[in-house]
Each structure stands twice: as structure tokens, then as C-alpha cells.
Specification:
With about 90 residues, the protein is mainly β. It has one domain. About 5% of the residues lie in helices and about 40% in strands. The protein has one helix and six strands. A hairpin with a 2-residue loop joins strand 2 and strand 3. It is globular, with a radius of gyration of 12 Å.
């Protein structure tokens, strides 16, 4: 399965649309691009392995295990990227 993320980079954050076979799955919010710096930046563009995962905090969600220089990158429900997204957990 291949998911595609189309991003719009803004000063205060990164908005996007996640799709599968050109069908929108959901809107996305991420931290702004700050050169992949942990806890303050979205991750670099590229192709990543996506793994289904469960945690008590986020329930069922997705994990990107192989993001360069980052750890525990998750795709999970959120409403405010700056308050709810850390990039590393």
C-alpha cells in the first residue's frame, strides 16, 4: 500500500492532505519545516515505511520507523500541531 502526502509549507506549520490511490483519507497538520530538527520540525519529504501501531495514548495509529535522525515519528489524530506534536516521543 502506498500513501501519498501533499504538503503546503507555511511559516507557522505544515498543512497537507493524505491520500491513497488519489482518494483523500484526511487532512494533516505538522510542525513547520525547520531542517528536520527534533521536536520543532516536520520530517523531510521522502518515501517511508509505515507500520500500524497501538499505544494507550493514541490508540491505533501509524509509525514511521526509518525517518533519518528521528525516532518514534507517529501519524495520529491531533488538532494543534504546536501543542500536540513533538516529533520524538
Amino acid at each position: 500500500m502506498k500513501l501519498e502526502l501533499f504538503r503546503t509549507y507555511l511559516l507557522g506549520g505544515t498543512n497537507g492532505v493524505l491520500s491513497f490511490n488519489k482518494i483523500k483519507i484526511c487532512a494533516t497538520i505538522e510542525l513547520p519545516w525547520k531542517k528536520n530538527a527534533p521536536r520543532i520540525s516536520c520530517i523531510p519529504e521522502g518515501e517511508y515505511l509505515v507500520v500500524q501501531r497501538y499505544s494507550p495514548k493514541f490508540g491505533n495509529h501509524l509509525w514511521l520507523p526509518d525517518v533519518p535522525d528521528r525516532s518514534l515519528i507517529l501519524i495520529h489524530p491531533a488538532n494543534n500541531a504546536k501543542k500536540e506534536e513533538n516529533g520524538d516521543r
